[in-house]
């Protein structure tokens, strides 16, 4: 990417890419079979070094002034526990998410008693959904190795989370976009173009929407 940007004279983008790559060593591992999120997380164990770590799922994008993962890290450091980002969702959507069972939601964060993976509406303990941002203590790997695969053969991260001695939930601030399907991905791209690009991309999207609405 750096070579192509430099060759095409896009030096402003080149500097942005170089700035990102200087922040960390980046490792890429492909999950060979779809054996669940839990198995995918296990691939990272050798890179963690026995330290707490952040997990960000790519099918959720959260736009906020303070990055959601920074909010979770703040709570994790305060309590020394694993922390999961939660969002109150419509009850009719609970069957599409992992759902948290909590005693109450008083305060900025709160203990979670249990997690249920994609429950039916009548079985859901709450409408607080896990939204793809976590900070885990390294003990999560022990639980991932210990759990049995689900009936479909997948290793569910929520099953391992249920074994943690302590885990907290935190409702993070920001606007969330689920980008796991094409319509949601398109909406997220339009929203980001309108919010953050005041040049050609912004004008193209704005003008296109205006023309379509006028028609």
Automatic annotation (TrEMBL):
Q: Which SUPFAM superfamilies match?
A: Nucleotide-diphospho-sugar transferases (SSF53448)
Q: Which Gene3D superfamilies match?
A: Spore Coat Polysaccharide Biosynthesis Protein SpsA, Chain A
User: Which InterPro entries does the UniProt record give?
Assistant: GalU_uridylyltTrfase_bac/arc, NTP_transferase_dom, Nucleotide-diphossugar_trans
Signal peptide limits:
none
Q: Cite the Nucleotidyl transferase domain residue spans from the record.
A: 25-189
Protein keywords:
Nucleotidyltransferase, Transferase
What chemistry does it catalyse, as a reaction equation? Answer: alpha-D-glucose 1-phosphate + UTP + H(+) = UDP-alpha-D-glucose + diphosphate
**Catalytic activity, EC:** 2.7.7.9
First-tier enzyme category under EC:
transferase
Q: Which GO terms describe its molecular function?
A: UTP:glucose-1-phosphate uridylyltransferase activity
Which domain of life, per UniProt?
A: Archaea
Q: Which family does it belong to?
A: Belongs to the UDPGP type 2 family.
PANTHER family linked: UTP--GLUCOSE-1-PHOSPHATE URIDYLYLTRANSFERASE
Any idea what this protein is called?
A: UTP--glucose-1-phosphate uridylyltransferase
Q: Which organism is it from?
A: Halobaculum litoreum
């Amino acid at each position: 990417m750096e070579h192509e940007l430099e060759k095409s004279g896009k030096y402003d983008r080149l500097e942005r890419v170089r700035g990102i790559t200087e922040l960390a060593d980046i490792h890429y591992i492909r999950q060979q079979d779809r054996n669940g999120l839990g198995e995918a997380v296990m691939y990272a164990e050798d890179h963690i070094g026995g330290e707490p770590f952040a997990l960000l799922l790519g099918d959720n994008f959260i736009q906020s002034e303070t990055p959601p993962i920074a909010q979770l890290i703040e709570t994790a450091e305060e309590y020394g526990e694993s922390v999961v980002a939660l969002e109150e969702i419509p009850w009719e959507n609970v069957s599409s998410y992992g759902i948290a069972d909590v005693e109450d939601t008083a305060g900025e964060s709160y203990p979670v008693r249990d997690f249920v993976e994609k429950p039916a509406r009548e079985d859901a303990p709450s409408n607080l959904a896990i939204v793809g941002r976590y900070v885990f203590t390294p003990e999560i790997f022990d639980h991932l190795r210990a759990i049995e695969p689900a009936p479909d053969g997948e290793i569910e991260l929520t099953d391992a989370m249920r074994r943690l001695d302590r885990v907290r939930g935190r409702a993070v601030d920001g606007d969330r976009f689920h980008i796991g399907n094409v319509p949601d991905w398109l909406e997220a791209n339009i929203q980001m173009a309108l919010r953050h690009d005041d040049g050609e991309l912004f004008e193209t999207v704005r003008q296109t929407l205006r023309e379509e609405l006028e028609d």
